[in-house]
Design goal:
The structure holds three protein chains of three kinds.
Chain A (H helix, E strand, L loop, with lengths): L9 H9 L5 H19 L2 E4 L1 H16 L11 E5 L26 H8 L3 E6 L33 H8 L5 E6 L5 H7 L2 E4 L19 E6 L2 H11 L29 E5 L9 H16 L3 E5 L7 H16 L18 H12 L2 H14 L4 H25 L2 E5 L15 H6 L5 H6 L3 E8 L5 E7 L5 H14 L12
Parallel strand pairs in A: 2-3, 2-4, 7-8, 7-9
Antiparallel strand pairs in A: 1-3, 4-6, 5-6, 5-10, 9-11, 10-11
Helix pairs in contact in A: 2-3, 5-6, 7-15, 9-11, 9-12
Chain B lengths: L2 E12 L36 E2 H13 L3 E2 L2 E2 L2 E4 L9 E4 L6 E10 L2 E14 L3 E3 L6 E5 L6 E7 L6 H18 L11 E11 L9 E3 L5 H20 L7 E6 L4 E7 L9 E2 L6 E2 L2 H10 L4 H12 L3 H8 L2 H12 L4 H18 L11 H12 L5 H14 L3 H7 L8 H14 L1 H8 L4 H13 L6 H14 L2
Parallel strand pairs in B: 13-14
Antiparallel strand pairs in B: 1-11, 1-12, 3-7, 4-17, 5-6, 5-16, 7-8, 8-11, 9-10, 12-13, 14-15
Helix pairs in contact in B: 1-4, 2-3, 5-6, 7-9, 9-10, 12-14, 12-15, 13-14, 14-15
Chain C lengths: L5 H10 L6 H18 L23 E2 L9 H5 L10 E4 L8
Classes of the chains: A alpha/beta, B alpha+beta, C mainly alpha.
The complex binds zinc ion.
Zinc ion binds next to loops of chain B.
Amino acid sequence: MSNDWYKKTAHEIRDAVRAKKVTALEVTESHLARIEDVDGKVKAFTDVWADAARNQAKAVDARIKNGEDVGVLAGVPIGLKDVFCTKRGTTTCCSKILKGYRSPFDGTAVERLQNAGAVFLGKLNMDEFAMGSSTENSSVQITRNPWNLDCVPGGSSGGSAAAIAADECAITLGSDTGGSIRQPAACVGCVGIKPTYGRISRYGLVAFASSLDQIGPFTKDVEDTAIALNVMCGRDPKDSTSADLAVPDFTKSLKADVSGLRIGLPKEYYTDALNAEMREKIMDAVKVLERQGAKVVEVSLPHTDYAIAVYYIICTAEASANLARFDGVRYGYRAPGVGSTQELYTRTKTDGYGPEVRRRIMLGTYVLSSGYYDAYYLKAQKVRSLIRKDFTDAFEKCDVVLTPTSPTAAFKIGEKSANPLEMYLSDIYTISVNLAGIPGLSMPCGLVASGLPAGIQIMAKPFDEETILRVAYTYEQKRGFEMGTPTAVK
Amino acid sequence: MKYEPVIGMEVHVELSTKSKVFCGCSTNFHAPANSNVCPVCLGMPGVLPVINKRAVEMSVMVGLALNCTISRWSKMDRKNYFYPDLAKNYQISQYDLPLCHDGFIDIKANGTSKRIGITRAHLEEDTARNTHTIGGGDSGVDFNRCGVTLLEIVTEPDIRGAEEAFAYLTELKQLLRYLDVSDCNMEEGSLRAEANISIRPTGTESFGTKTEVKNVASFSGIQKAIEFEIARQAKLIDEGGKVVQETRGWDADRGITFSQRAKESAHDYRYFPDPDLVPIVVDEAWEGRIRESLPELPQARRARFESGYGLSAYDAGVLTAEKEMADYYEAVVKQGCAPKQAANWLSVELQALLTEHKQELTASKVTADRLAAMLKLIEDGTISGKIAKEVLLDMFESGKEPKAIVEEKNLVQISDTSAIESAAREVIAANPGPVAEFRSGKEKTFGFLVGQLMKATKGKANPQMANEVLRKVLKETE
Amino acid sequence: MAKITKADVEYVAGLAQLTLDEATKEKLVGEMGDILAYMDKLNELNTDGIEPTMHVLEMSNVFREDEVQPSLDREAALANAPKTDGEYFLVPKILDTGDE
Ligand SMILES: [Zn+2]
């Protein structure tokens, strides 16, 4: 029997498992074999839980045999960014400072996936503590882009993105603080969504920047995104910032119908800074939607130019406090032979963090320090209010905002690592969404000449993931091409 | 030169919520080390705090009792510093928008009443406990206390001496106990007081350099530490020296404060709003519900004891010092006992026994009901006051009902005139000398003869009747 | 306004409990200087009267009831610790008296 279940979407797998056309174990074996085949090249996984996954799959099969309800992700193999707390295996954020750390609990999103019948394949690579846009800042390994192994898969959830593109998992989980789901999704040509802030509980997500972090899935198609959101969204009493709102059935938004829908194109995003080839791909996508009856309107997000400065002040400030706890007292790495508490801290932290994490802690500490709080942190939070208002105003004129996900396709490994500011500037199209707390989805809109995927980003009002999904589904159905299997992992 | 001390107090009080302020761990003080801990209070990766509603309510109760304005809108902030007793290396506290602010408390010191301004009272989390008794050159950290609800109460620099500081702490503790929001046990660290002390030439307005005295285990220790610190600073300045801004500890054995650490400029706490917690909004309705739930506070109760029960200011003060004592007293009075008599028996006689046996009133076998029953026996003439002391002691030890003790020991007062009269005649017959002295005009001897009569009746004679009858018989037999 | 000096870098490293070698300090003077200079573009905007964003969601009063929930077993609490004696987390002897 040919076992190419690894190529299938989550909903195809789920339907087949529930219909007893295949067992969860067969599906899991298919993915484990695929990981064995390609992960040596892609290096998406930092830890593969083969035996545990088989046991989980067998348990799903046993429940199906007993006629029990196994949930909407029955037998679906899922990979987790190493930023999610799991009782199984280790939770390290790909940092030396958390090497070997075993969480005593499963986070809320992970728990909800598990309760829906998911099978966990293991942990995926990331930039250390989710700080980066290329996954080069991992202390474990560098993940490769499945379309071109010399290129980065984006970041910080590069492992999660690459694992979907390379068919190693049906769904993966990532986290997005400034684009860390959408940008890698664009780089590898899969679907990735950052839901509205507050949609998915952050309990069990190791914090980078608490006011910006949000969990989201990577999937092969839009339907899988809707299913994953259905499972993970909703109020959690363990997270004070999780919204107390009813969660719609997102699969009901999977309709190829955008007639009368207003698509906003913010003029600040379509400037000379945007690569011409990329612009063409986006405009092709816009045309597809126009043909389906959508109307294009120009909108303005006047404070776009300030978003990166605001973002890097807020995220580093929050990170400087969030990461203070890694001190070698209760868990994690402790520098050897320390003679005082002072030495315990300084040597543990200095040895334990990579250069990008250190740099951001330094920046964050600086912007909060005495005499600078008002000039940087407070100022940034005020400008953040202006950026939020830009979106409120724009959504008076349109239902969704359509932009490129990133100014260029995936860049070469090492290309930007020498200049941190240049790396930060590549987040220009994604970070405003986090600052405003609104939802944003990235999906592929073709390949550029170099053979790398281009990504289109769809944003909507807070808690209006439904409209995003409808637009994304329509485009997916009507775009007239398949992304296919990435060249390097065929 | 003559100096005036300027003192502000910071009191940290652990509020007696059942669970910690941001997680569900128990706050039981006596648990084994590191057993009341969870991922949240251990600051493990991936956790989030959720505020305990009762902690907010208790804080507001204290704020209202301290005549504070309750913030309609407040927030939690992160205070960043590194220390092994801090799980996250930041403390969740309140910076610029405390829950309660701008209140006051009236104290009595040096015989006069004085108002001490309360700058603020804010909610925060307690830290872990370090122990230095571990072998091998290490210190141990126990996170049981980490995350316990803490309220920090800060006064204006209105306190002008050690005695006022003591009075402030006493008044504050009394208030907290009345509110039943803390056990205020200094030895167990549930109440910790620090004093910021400076001095300035009497009559001047500007502030001198202050020192912060902390880690003192009792109110009297703080009083002594402040006295010492005022004298130390005065001597230093008189000798041409300068006070250094620093933290000073208190060595109770030697009776001195000592430098612990200079307050370096490195205290840059980098406060910012905690993005994991949402604002606290105490609207008028909620504040009103909390206000209605407040018990009668000590000052009001004191005033009521004076006017309602006709007690002296002193007695009212003694009886209301502890809420338990005041409740006990009112339980006795409610049974119809004379307030003044009840006050004496409780605050003098029973209190003496409690002090002698180091017992708490609430643990005593002499319940309010029993004391009331005994007082009634005095009032209806069944026993004399003198006999009552014997009954009280018996009750204190045995826990028996006073009536049972009186019957068992046959202590019923003799109020039968003929029995006393015959005893009087015997006393007169047996003491011809003193009788003759009395009759020659030595009134003093009468007391001796009454004593003999009481002795003859084993103390059971009604004292007033004994007096009257003896005089009568002495006259008759003259 | 941002002209960050080596002394600033050293001060901030002290607050963040990092010990940096000379080369790293020099590098950070440059990198942080560039980034902070970039951030200074926010000063182009007049933000008088603008409320800072504390939360993107307008929520308040999210509480839990005062109920005791199970804690971790001590063994589980100490399981990840680099050094313990089975009861306490061990750290090098604490010399000063702490902050609070
Ligand atoms: Zn806890």
